[in-house]
TrEMBL record:
Residues that hold ATP according to the record: 113, 239, 293, 297
UniProt GO molecular function: ATP binding; isopentenyl phosphate kinase activity; kinase activity
GO cellular component terms listed in the entry, alphabetical order: cytosol
Skewed-composition ranges (Low complexity): 10-20
Top-level division of the source organism's lineage: Eukaryota
Entry similarity comment: Belongs to the isopentenyl phosphate kinase family.
GO BP: terpenoid biosynthetic process
Aspartate/glutamate/uridylate kinase domain mapped to chain residues: 29-314
Biological source species: Asparagus officinalis
Full protein name: Isopentenyl phosphate kinase
Amino acid sequence: MADAVKDLNSTTSTSEETLTLKSPKSKLRCIVKLGGAAITHKNELESINEESLGTVCSQLRRAMVSPESSSPAKVVGMDWSRRGGDPIVSDVDELRGSDLGLDNSFIVVHGAGSFGHFQASRSGVHKGGLHLPLVKAGFVATRISVTSLNLEIVRALAREGIPAVGMSPFACGWSTRERNIASADASQIVEALQAGFVPVLHGDAVIDHTLDCTILSGDVIIRHLAQLLMPEYVVFLTDVLGVYDRPPTDPKAILLREIAVGEDGDWSIVKPTPDHMKGKVEITVAAHDTTGGMETKILEAAVIAKLGVDVYITKAGTDHCRRALRGEVHDIPDDWLGTVIRSKRK
């Protein structure tokens, strides 16, 4: 982690080609990252963790409900497609004349988990070289995989009555140069927010102007959107409770409750307090993970924190997740388990 955060200053700027946008009419409340390991079975190729995904979508809806909501108590789903012979939704008329009663000022970005990583790793898409048939085929295969997951996540959100719309970075014209964002047209995202939709983006295979192609991770996408739109807070949902001082499978692993990031990119562990922990955080990355795993998450979260935006990292589907989505953990309650990464200025 120390090496990752030391590199903060080299990743905070984006290319001059990046589009400058007007902010949405109302302030963006939250950007949510659904970690691939939390919503898929990462060791089973293209296998969704339906229970975890369903729980998170339900919690996200509850986080969006406004106190003055006049929406019906019953959730009326927005996925009106037929699945497995199920009848077409018949209760859509309940939406007539009613207000959704949701604060839709959220953006969701999800990881790939067991989708896309295998295809990208096997073909070397993240290394570039579109002139090679294997890489070109892998680019196509990777996008088929990650966009299929995106559709399923959009459908899961829609079944909870959340007006979610899928947006792929490649299709929106996002590109990189030497793996750094070179062009990121977020105008469609802003327009979707203004229209009351919840944009759902994902890590994607994109054109790289130096390497031909690469993988743009969801964590990098979140950092860029946070710089453009300055949300109130950002939530990373993972398959563990937060950031530990070593792999969480180690019985001696300690959950880091709060990490503070300085203007110069320096960082310090605030909770727990032992100074000897600094610089000894160990990060592991799965062999097939082409996006950097937890190390990239911490790096991008620290960049966001430098903006003055708090980042909450916790386990998907738990009550800690629910409270983070609602923005109720700014003061880090003793009974909340997760990691807060924030600016030292706060």
